[in-house]
Design goal:
The structure is a homotetramer.
Chain A lengths: L16 H10 L7 E5 L5 H7 L4 E6 L2 H13 L5 E5 L12 E6 L6 H11 E11 L2 H12 L4 E16 L2 E6 L3 E8 L6
Parallel strand pairs in A: 1-2, 1-4, 2-3, 4-5
Antiparallel strand pairs in A: 5-8, 6-7, 6-8
């Protein structure tokens, strides 16, 4: 588990530690997995996944974010992350087979991204989305529920940090995140 | 119910609308009530209470806040709010009998404030506190639980605003607030 | 403000006190208002509204709930609530003009209910919905956002009760509720 | 990551999956670590820790819980969990040196448990507490803040499950949990 402060950030929004931890856990990553991080942002999820898995593709459209991912890869001496500078779903066709997909940002193309991932996702493959809008939650749930071969689980997570300010411990809220996770086929193993 | 945007604010922290509404409701204000608003801040709670009750005392130590209370009283054409510029519990001795006390800020003197209020609180009087720190919650619960003649109720409230940003509805968290409310004696009527 | 325990309940789900208080506040009820409570359940919202307004229609499809509403009306000696035993949007055509609509349950007909309310809602009329499902939130936001003459505001409310169990104060969560409130036209007055 | 449903439970309360995941992550477990799980309950945390670490001691006072821990150890074929049937802090003196302590339950002896752990905790050792009461949060924060050689971090986590009921996705709240984590000395490495 890496602390938020260890990542190089700039102004690109970053998935917070607790959400990273839950996202990675829900993705049930294995050492042999090929992972794609869609909307990789600062690369924080990519780097945590790369420490657990064979290969991670970091897909990101934003130039500034691409630069941050590069710097973070270097900082953490990671050699199994490959950056794809594209706007998803474009770029997903460069990956042959995916064991787990982490979706941190979908830029309004969530349905198209899920369709493209579905083509490449291995049996027992996992998709885990972090959503901050009602629209994305709704779209994602509808997409998974319309497909009988996905088993879907969804939570909302709200974290309040208890921060020492002077002599008291104040509660400070982080924005709530919806985490939607699904596993494809092979339900015997779930 | 007054919208947050209608109050003149400056940099003084203001109790948000939903918390004001719940605080006022928990205080079970009646037209004949004399109310004190301890740590009145911008005066938002004082003004909402003044619209429902005979008399409100706004107790506040901060000069900038006092000025805001004055401006808000003028803006809302309120004539039954009296400002007491003191640091609580000082100033409470100027009020003979209190039917309801709203505590928005205690400046580290919570126990002393509760002790002073207890002296002046009428039978069936109510005390409602908004706390943002674990320490205050803990202190307040301990104070009330040590006294058999108070019936105490406590909740934590977390509000997320759903804000339209571009074409999506994002969840934005407000800091959670603990609302502790107690009624003194006269339990037959509760 | 009425305590939850004062209502006669049975097994019909009841809007909790804090949510009732916020719902009533967001509806900005005035003494001259005609209010409809759609999916009235135990009648708790109808009764609180009836204490503030000229006339309340309690619309409810469930027979058991209708009986509870009757009992609660009697218990609180209310004489300005009229029960309409129908499944909304049916029954709304019996009300000529509505100043405020509270929607506690929509039974899957939310769009139809909003369409029917829109026909009867007075200028400056308010609609306040309590939603517990993502689908309803999504439908309601879409309905309001597609109409330029409604100003819409949405929050999620999470209440944790702090309950004394033995010698400690435990946090117990209530299910989160989305409250969507909108005002029709007449934006100068908002 | 193990699903809640995979553990044998009975009526003993169990730390939920998301809280287990965050607790384990905050404990920064390493393969060489000796871990103690205080108030082990069903043993769910002990078992997850045992999959990551050399040795786990499951300390528990309740006979029924001890039986469940045994069954779960067997079910998951774990051979590095040692059960200590005692009421903490008793039993901690059987462990020579502790790298990480997970405290799921303290039975009113939190201060004594922290004192005893402090004696045995290795440099850079971690303590992670799950609290459900304001009292425990307050006690724990006070304990850590009074000691300069501990670096303390605290959050409140609220999880809502989105459950498919009929044709809609309802939000169901889990009780909020406070997670307090601290690391002892050796701050250069944090």
């Amino acid at each position: 588990m890496i602390d938020d402060g260890e990542f190089i950030r700039g102004k690109v929004p970053m998935t917070k530690q607790e959400i990273r931890v839950l996202t990675i856990a829900k993705a049930r990553l294995k050492p042999s997995d090929v992972v794609v991080d869609v909307g990789a942002g600062t690369g924080s999820l990519s780097i945590e996944a790369a420490m657990l898995c064979r290969k991670v593709y970091a897909l990101e459209r934003n130039v500034e974010a691409i630069e941050l991912i590069r710097k973070n890869i270097e900082k953490f001496s990671i050699d199994n992350v490959e950056i794809i500078h594209e706007e998803a779903p474009r770029g997903l066709d460069r990956i042959e087979k995916i064991d787990a997909a982490l979706i941190g940002g979908s830029g309004g193309f969530l349905t198209e991204i899920l369709d493209a991932l579905d083509q490449r996702l291995a049996p027992n493959g996992r998709i885990v989305l972090n959503c901050i809008s009602i629209e994305s939650v709704s779209k994602a749930l509808n997409w998974f529920r319309a497909r009988e071969n996905y088993l879907c689980d969804a939570i909302q997570v709200q974290i309040n940090r208890i921060e020492r300010i002077g002599r008291v411990d104040m509660m400070k809220a982080l924005n709530p995140i919806y985490i939607i996770s699904a596993i494809k086929g092979g339900f015997d193993n779930v």
